[in-house]
Every structure is written in structure tokens, then in C-alpha cells.
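Person: I keep going back and forth on a fold encoding question. Show me how you would write down a chain together with its backbone fold. Please set it down just below, with no commentary around it:
Helper:
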Amino acid sequence: MRKVLLFVALALSVTTSAKQSVTVNVQAGKPGATINKNIYGQFSEHLGTCIYGGLWVGPESSIPNTNGYRNDVLNALRELHVPLMRWPGGCFADEYHWMDGIGPKENRPRMVNNNWGGIVEDNSFGTHEFLNLCEMLNIEPYISMNVGSGSVEEAAKWVEYMNAADGPMAKIRKQNGREEPWHVRYIGVGNEAWGCGGNMRPEYYSDIFRRYQTYMRDYNGTHIVKIASGASDYDYEWTEVLMDRIGSQMNAVSLHYYTVAGWDGSKGSATNFSKDDYYWCLGKALGIEPVIQKHLDIMSKADPNHRIPLYVDEWGTWWDSEPGTQLFQQNTMRDAFVASLSLDVFHKYADRIQMTNIAQVANVLQSMVLTKDDKMVLTPTYYVYKMYIPHQDAKSLATTVDGCAVKLVRNERFKNNPAEGANRPLPLMSATASKAADGKIHVSLSNVDADEEQEVTVNLNDFSAKKVTGQILTSGAINDYNSFDNPNKVTLKEYKGAKIAKDGSITLTMPALSIITLEVE
């Protein structure tokens, strides 16, 4: 994760077409690639109160907990069916020395978190605490190795500690109370090697990767997925070099893309923003699609059989921190739409994108939950993820939207920047659909129009609808959010407005600022 210090003022030019009725066409009879459940992965970094106070309070805390993990957060994550979680970073990963976080807690050395505010941590949350959490919640762990300031030996021993059934590292693990290996499969070989992970050139990192991966062994039948530290946003050269120089020695390559108003200065308030700010943000979120397309095109030239998938292992919104906090930001309906629109894009590339990790799971950036002392609230983004659970491991269905109004959005701050300065088209309706193993169709629809409802017709080609039910997430204003004093201002509700027409299509009226998931049998 980046460190950011700059101020940005937004100036937007928005062009609107007239409101129209919208038709959503779903190719229900032609299922495509499976939407890997790991597209719904989470990210937990030692930053602010994501770990300490968010996931972990320690067994001695007066806050209700199970072995140190907050009960309210545990329950929230269980209900979300989180498939995978990345840890310990982020920038933090490349200064983290794993052996400081094992053994009796009273013997663990304290450390300075140089990336995030110079806070001194006691290492009470380490390898055992993270992997045991994953095991409790049936979450697949994704470990980011310290390449920036670590060593090949340190990384190799960490893999052995987690996965070996016998040997010197397994012996130490058993002495620390864990008899069986955890069978960790996903290993990130560094993080943002072009930045906080070492300020490397792609050629140098490629050689470093080849060296590290050589000594990351498979143990006890666990085949490691070795993930290269990929590009940021528009750095297509980075991807070209990695594909050329690492090639078959990596099992996946990552990409980072944040919906942020530039890295220079203020990024804007999470809650106090204009309608123009809102629309620009959603246009920026959808800007991930051409970025994905170009990186995938580069990957295809070197890997025509598409053996290497793309992992978008950091993404989400980034606003100014709340005063006195470290990247703690509120989460509004605007963030909810960034989540739904981004997930819709990931579904379109389900054959190539096999994992994404929204930043982050608790209290930091676009989080699922917010905590304060013994209180917890669920964010609008949490509810989007809950609505989209049926898409996990379902077959993607090609979906098009016809008759949709489009806004052109632009940030004048970037007028001289070719990558950021051009007008971005923002369709006011987004849709995605999938078919589950039991034959049910799920269609998720997002009406991002801040003012107008939309009359929607959903055509399920080659599917005879007999029953339709739904859920809706909506609120009265673009900046509505759930606070500790009003935790249920934005929440999921049953939606009963969808009807099956005589021709088998489904009709519904979507309120302004609404996200709806339909289940069709």
C-alpha cells in the first residue's frame, strides 16, 4: 500500500444524456468462466486499527472476544463468506520479520512501524494469530513475504515453518503450540517492489523473484502459488518486463489500482463531497477496466495459453483520513457503488482474474467493518459484498445493458495527464449475472443515478423464469453512511418490486442510488 501526503482539488466536467428505460440482456443459456470466489478476497495490513482494535484485541480485553479475536468482527466475517485474506501487508510486509511474531508473547520484541506513523507494535499478532484466524473462519491465507528488507533464507524458513510436517522449522512451530502445518498456498514474493517494497527496477525485481521462488519449496503436498509483485495502474512496462523475464517461474502476477483523486495532497473527504465528485469517483472506478484490458493483452503475448492469472490484490477507494486517525475513513453509498461496479468488471474477466483483495477488511480505507472500543458497524461496502455472495464460484453469464444514459466525467486536475485527463464515460446502470450450481440465476444491478429512478427490463435468454426475489441497498443521499450512533442508516432490505412478464422477462423500477440483486428460479 502506498504512503500519500498531497493535496488535490477536483474540478469536474459532466455531460448528461436524457433518462431512458434500460434493458439488461443476460445470456442465461451460455454459461462462461467460473467466477472464482477469491475475487471476493480481503486485505489486512498492520496499519491504523485494522489489526489491533479491528481484528484483534487480545484475550485479556474487556471487549467480547474469542482467544483475542473480536466476536462481533468474527461473526460479521463469517456472514460475509470471506474466501481469502492477504497479510501482513502492504508496505508493512517488507519491513516485517516473521520470527519476531512467534513464540510466547512476552518474549516477542517490539517493533517500530516505519511505514505507518512510527507506531510501536508489540508483535502480539503474528503468524499463529493470523493463520489461526483464517482457520477459524475457513479463510484461505495469502502471505506477503518480506523481499524489500528481508532475505531469501528468512522467506524460505517462513514457508517451511508454515507448511512442513517435519524438520527444524516444523520443530519450532510445534514447540510454539501448533502440531499440524497450515498448508499455506498463496505466497506473495514482495509487495509494490517498484515503490515501498524496495524502489526496484522491473529488471532487478525479476531477478530477485527468480532467486526467491527457487527456495520457496513445496512441503507436505502443498503446492505454492508464487505471486509476482506486479504493476501499479498504468505501468505497462513493468508487466512487459516481468512476463518476459520471469515467465513460467511465476504462478500469478498482481496489479494495484485505487480509486483516488491523485497522490498529491488532499484526496477529498470520505463524507463531504459534491454530486460532481461522486460521479467522477465512479468514472475513475470504472477506469480499471481499460487498465485490466491492457495488462491482460501484454500478458497474452508472452503467455498465449493464459496459464498466468492476474490478481488485483489491492484496490478500493482512498480518501482523507478522519482527523487524528491513520487511514480510517467512513464508507458511504459512493463507496458501495465503487464496490459493485468494480466487482461487475472483475466478473467480465473471470477467465483471467482469479483473485482480488479490497483494501482493507477493518477500519482502513474501503473497509467492511468499522470498530470503536466495543462498538462495530457494518459499512455499505459490506452489504454489497453480502449481496454478491451468490456469485462466488458461479458461472459468469455474458450481460449487456442497452438504452443506458451515459455521463462524461473529467477531473481538471489531470488535464495534462494522458492516463487520467481524458473524459471518462460513466454509464448510469451496471449489471452482472451468474448461474449457480443449483441452476438459479442471480442478477446484480446498480443504478448510480443520484436523482432518477430507472425502469429496467431483464431478458434472460434461454431461461424460463418461474420465481424472482431480491435484495436492495439504497439510501436517500450519496453521502449516507452508518455511524456508531446510527449503525443502520444504510442496510439491506428485501426487494419485492420485480415482476415476471408474460414474455418471461423481468421488470422492475430501480430507485435512484440503488443496488439490487435478483434471484431467479
Q: What stands out?
A: The first strand starts at residue 22 and ends at 34.
